[in-house]
Design brief:
Layout: E1 11-14, E2 21-23, H1 25-39, H2 45-53, H3 59-65, H4 70-80, H5 83-89, E3 90-92, H6 94-102, E4 107-111, H7 115-124, E5 133-136, H8 148-157, E6 165-169, H9 172-180, E7 187-191
Parallel strand pairs: 1-4, 1-6, 4-5, 6-7
Antiparallel strand pairs: 2-3
Helix pairs in contact: 1-4, 5-7
């Protein structure tokens, strides 16, 4: 495989949480404490980390393995989350900031984070002006590792299957989405681990 420099790629795709940005752990702890109260089921620090960062595979499968119905968990989780509080508790990783500043190619974000939470974060941190598209996974569009959200971002960026790109992420689902993409044989993965 040909080695490329940062400027040698035709496009870049990034996961959001855990890759470009992260949240103060105190915020995450508070959210899971409140969700636990609603569900009458406490969450350990490790369980909160696993769910927050998507560690251990698809979150719904993890929830089911813990005996939690995802159809009950996600409404409780989203009812607790305050978009403004989350944005205020979120920070841009300095390494990600530096990398974004060196890229001279179309940039997209493909995230599991829902639009109502993503928008305040990218606006507060000035990311909207630094990227060319933001795709939030949904039930209709699909969830990584399904490559459909990645393909949607590629379409919005106007890249072709012949273009070489990178998908940077912090979870198995990000790597899986890049590996299963049939749209670009030149889509490399960059695994990021800040925690």
């Amino acid at each position: 495989m040909q080695r490329r420099t940062v400027t040698g790629y035709d496009f870049w795709l990034f996961d959001l949480d855990g890759t470009l940005v992260d949240v103060d752990p105190a915020y995450t702890r508070e959210v899971f404490d409140r969700v636990g109260e609603r569900l009458d089921r406490p969450f350990s620090d490790r369980e909160a980390e696993v769910l927050w960062h998507g560690l251990g595979g698809p979150r719904n499968a993890v929830l089911r393995s813990w005996g939690i119905d995802p159809r009950v968990f996600w409404p409780a989780f989203h009812a607790i989350e305050d978009p403004r509080a989350r944005a205020d508790a979120t920070y841009l990783h300095p390494d990600a900031d530096a990398l974004l500043s060196t890229i001279d190619a179309p940039i997209g974000i493909v995230t599991h984070c829902q639009e109502f939470l993503t928008a305040p974060v990218v606006d507060t941190l000035g990311l909207r002006e630094r990227v060319d598209t933001i795709v939030c996974c949904t039930e209709e569009l699909g969830w990584k590792p399904d490559p459909t959200p990645v393909h949607a971002a590629m379409d919005e960026l106007g890249v072709s299957a012949a273009d070489a790109g990178v998908l940077a992420g912090d979870a198995e689902s990000d790597v899986g989405a890049a590996r299963t993409s049939k749209r670009s044989v030149n889509l490399e993965t960059l695994f990021v681990k800040f925690y």
